[in-house]
Amino acid sequence: MSSKMKCAQDIIVLLALFLHVLDAKYTSCQAQDTFGFNSLYKAGDIMLGGIFAVHFELQAPEMLFRSKPLQWKCDSFDILLFQRPQTMVFAIEEINRDQSLLPNITLGYRIFDNCINLQVSLRAAASLIAGQGDTVNDNNCTGPPPVVAVIGEPLSSYSIAVARLLGLFKIPQVSYCASSPLLSDKREFPSFFRTVPSEAFQVIPKIIQYFGWTWVGAIGSDDDYGLYALKSFSEEHKKFGCIAFSEAINVNDKSNLKRAVKVVQQSSATVIVVFLTKLDVSILINEIAHQNITGRQWVASDSWGAFAALASNENFKYFGGTIGSHSKKRGHPWTGAISASSKA
């Protein structure tokens, strides 16, 4: 027997022995580790998933690759935001109590807190559609049932990312806050639905045209939501005016934020349209106040038009008289416009 054939036989024997040991050791499917979510869970015949923002901050562990990373930690709990998942739980419990609605069927839920972090949102979505469990004791690896639909995300940019994942498996997603028109494209987001109207960006150009403002600036978030909003607004406004500047910003990048604020400060445009979420615009507000930029007319998108922080004593000097828009479709083309920061 040649040395090559003997070597091949030895490898086959070692491989068979290795597989035998594995089969004896792992009689069940076992996950290597789990990601620690803040969650609510109740078993049911039909499972519904939920992704909500309950915390405002997330502390990521250091990735030094010398030891196992610690779990991510959520901070800044918001009791008002916690009412949203509680509402979902209440609705499910009420349906279960009424046997005339779903006789002999019990709804269950698995709800995750995304801590206002896209990575956590995607992890949550993946866990919801795959089923979540540490150990499965049969050879078929059938763990807890995956959900049949997901409630959330609250933010448009997060909804876009999650919808692309859920859409691959045709899992329905119902958002209660996401208003970006981008999500109305059923070819790209076939299983996305929402309970709020699409944010009609053409409303803001009509407001600006009504007041005769032709020289304006625009700020949006550097993500799908903000970039689409800036593009849509610019196309509408250019029909009767000019864009002084159009800035896509990342409020978590201090240098990027300061550069954008400097553009606002140096521009001759005094009317500025802002497409940001409440969380992002709060950081912009602080920077505008820090740089003492006054004499600007701010126009807010639907997501922060009624932000209470605008009317605070500290911010009124800079944002007093801000105009917010709501996408109503009856009456005057900007029936939903409000003076969000009027102190009266």
From TrEMBL:
It comes from the Eukaryota. It holds the Pfam family ANF_receptor. GO terms for molecular function: G protein-coupled receptor activity. Keywords: Cell membrane, G-protein coupled receptor, Glycoprotein, Membrane, Receptor, Signal, Transducer, Transmembrane, Transmembrane helix. It is found in: Cell membrane. Residues 86-324 form the Receptor ligand binding region domain. Residues 1-24 form the signal peptide. Its main location: membrane. InterPro entries: ANF_lig-bd_rcpt (IPR001828), GPCR_3 (IPR000337), GPCR_3_Ca_sens_rcpt-rel (IPR000068), Peripla_BP_I (IPR028082). It is a multi-pass membrane protein. The keyword Nucleotide-binding does not apply. The keyword Signal applies. GO terms for cellular component: plasma membrane. This is CASR protein. It comes from Polypterus senegalus (Senegal bichir).
